[in-house]
Amino acid sequence: MRLQDKVAIVTGGGGGIGRATALRFADEGARVVVSDIHAESGEETVEQVRKMGGDAIFVKTDTANEGEMKALVEECEQHYGGLDILFNNAGVSNEEVKLADVSVEEWDRVVSINLKGVFLGMKFSIPLMEKRNGGSIVNTSSLLGFKGKKYMAPYNASKGGVITLTKNAALEYGSKNIRVNAVCPGVIDTNIVTPWREDERKWPIISKANALKRVGQPEEIANAVLFLVSDEASYVTGTSLLVDGGGLTF
């Protein structure tokens, strides 16, 4: 198994890409700390891991909150003795309005969770990885971190920031054997695209706006993340891996 005896934190692990990745990690032998702001869904992920014979705990966390992110990493160290893998995955979309109509409160909410949360995850996790003489971090960006989409300014800006922050961290900690990469999903079948799915006019277009003409599944992102955190990607750092069905080329 590719992650035997590794310890991993997955933020946003209560559903979608986070849950699929937590299950994938556990299936490959990792002990998983599942983090989510929604306790019920996070506990459900832990239950699924345990049913498959894996080892997991849940820690309720608001990733935009410095104290809670610090406590998450401390709980991981206390329970499992260290940390090898961080999947900074928690994220939100935004109310779709033109840039000038975005409220400051909405901007702050989206950027705090999507970008500040990634920063906090790395800030508190990297010292634990240094104790282990290495580790692997994957941050969730997006296809929209590469290109614009109307009415999505806070989300797009935050995800573009994740790409650059990933490169910065990779440069600073490569000498410590800590690899830092980003995964950039296209349109994936999760709750974050529910508003698009409910638009009977736009959804048939959005759902096929890529080379493969379909929506991606959370498990397909989980497989990419597994590769990035595994030893198979030992010479991969500072990259942003598009898993978008060819959406950027469309």
UniProtKB/TrEMBL annotation:
<keyword id="KW-0560">Oxidoreductase</keyword>
<protein>
    <submittedName>
        <fullName>Glucose 1-dehydrogenase</fullName>
        <ecNumber>1.1.1.47</ecNumber>
    </submittedName>
</protein>
<dbReference type="InterPro" id="IPR036291">
    <property type="entry name" value="NAD(P)-bd_dom_sf"/>
</dbReference>
<dbReference type="Pfam" id="PF13561">
    <property type="entry name" value="adh_short_C2"/>
</dbReference>
<dbReference type="InterPro" id="IPR002347">
    <property type="entry name" value="SDR_fam"/>
</dbReference>
<dbReference type="GO" id="GO:0047936">
    <property type="term" value="F:glucose 1-dehydrogenase [NAD(P)+] activity"/>
</dbReference>
<comment type="similarity">
    <text>Belongs to the short-chain dehydrogenases/reductases (SDR) family.</text>
</comment>
<dbReference type="GO" id="GO:0008206">
    <property type="term" value="P:bile acid metabolic process"/>
</dbReference>
<dbReference type="InterPro" id="IPR020904">
    <property type="entry name" value="Sc_DH/Rdtase_CS"/>
</dbReference>
